């Protein structure tokens, strides 16, 4: 019965040997609970996603066993690759909006584990056997319900790691073959792409614990010469947060006037470009206030991949680049993966 927290993965630098390998999907993790006509979609945090994906619920009702619990990912594809922004649009309070988007940008469900079938719990069953049971349970299910491609061959997994990125996938997950299902434990392994980019440091947010740096706001210049907000750099030790407050003090501006993001409170300006701190229903009551810094310093950060014109996840600090000029920090430096059609991934 819900809620069940999904099994998680810890990061590794390389694909480990001797495991079951799958592509790492970039969507909403979801646990599917079905008992007859009753279907519930549970999120990673345990909160229900059911009302936001009516077309997925309808498809599952037609294609999966009458009583089962599945672990997988809800994804939306546009032009042959995953589109995480389209997923975010679904988390909307208006049912009419959700149902409209369900028709315009329908979602799919990619299953990669089976937790229960009929009266049997499979949590203590080894991964290899759960995979076999999953394939058998969903044999012939058909789109938009898919069984995630998997392999035991490490060379194939390494090939997937490079080849599938063009379809919007962001790495490989490796699962020990004798691993039972362990909710909310990091017992799988994930290997993600990492690249670096030189960004303009243009602002900072304070840490929730007090007057120390919480995150650094990063910018890149677009083709029109506008500094766009592309993400944040965070995850500093507390001592380093304190040091950064002192180190960045000379760059602090008394006000936002004259800053490239001085119009960040304007909804019109938000619509025209990537600016920090603007109103958003996704962030709720989260404090998005920020302190402007003169955009004079360049920082090299590591990132896994882009979602549209921003970093998909929090970037990681690598080093300051005093040898670089801010106006040279443009989108042109970013590496683009070779395109790969998502339909070919699901057919792998």
Automatic annotation (TrEMBL):
Gene3D superfamilies: DNA ligase/mRNA capping enzyme, Nucleic acid-binding proteins. InterPro entries: Adenylation_LigC-like (IPR044119), ATP-dep_DNA_ligase (IPR050191), DNA_ligase_ATP-dep_C (IPR012309), DNA_ligase_ATP-dep_cent (IPR012310), DNA_ligase_ATP-dep_CS (IPR016059), NA-bd_OB-fold (IPR012340), OBF_LigC-like (IPR044117). Keywords: Ligase. It is an enzyme of class 6 (ligase). The keyword Ligase applies. Residues 6-192 form the ATP-dependent DNA ligase family profile domain. GO terms for biological process: DNA recombination; DNA repair. Its EC number is 6.5.1.1. The keyword Ligase applies. One of its GO terms (molecular function) is DNA ligase (ATP) activity. Residues 211-324 form the DNA ligase ATP-dependent C-terminal domain. It comes from the Bacteria. It catalyses: ATP + (deoxyribonucleotide)n-3'-hydroxyl + 5'-phospho-(deoxyribonucleotide)m = (deoxyribonucleotide)n+m + AMP + diphosphate. Belongs to the ATP-dependent DNA ligase family. NCBIfam families: PRK08224.1. This is DNA ligase (ATP). It comes from Actinacidiphila alni. The lineage of its organism: Bacteria, Bacillati, Actinomycetota, Actinomycetes, Kitasatosporales.
